[in-house]
Amino acid sequence: IDYLGMMMAVQGAFADRSKLSSLQARAEKLEAASSKVLGGDKSKIRKIEELKETIKVTKDAKNVAIREYERIKDNNRFEVERLDGERRADFMNMMKGFVVNQVGYAEKISNVWAKVAEETSQYDREKHIS
């Protein structure tokens, strides 16, 4: 299971979210400040546009991180299910082997007892004949 990859994606998503919140707050302050200046301040307007572009890029990066997190999560779920299936199959094969082994052992014991019974009955017949 790729825990490291999943944690990196989660950490990236949180960092992007924090950065996004900070950028949005800066953009709102600049917009509020430029609206107070009559006619607007061109440098502040340019900064606002740059911040909006940075926010867009950061949102895109956040979406990529979320998709990567979901991909890793789905992959981990698939791996856990696959390992669980393999574990069950191994256990069933072990149980089948155990049962076959016990049946073989029971057959050997049965053959030994059948031979003992046969020898005992021959001994008993020989005893009655003499």
From TrEMBL:
Pfam family, any one = Vps5
Which residues are the signal sequence here?
none
Alphabetized InterPro entries for the sequence: AH/BAR_dom_sf, SNX2A/B, Vps5_C
Per UniProt, residues of the Sorting nexin/Vps5-like C-terminal domain are 2-118
Q: Membrane spanning segments where?
A: none
Q: What is this protein called?
A: Sorting nexin/Vps5-like C-terminal domain-containing protein
Organism, per UniProt?
A: Eutrema salsugineum (Saltwater cress)
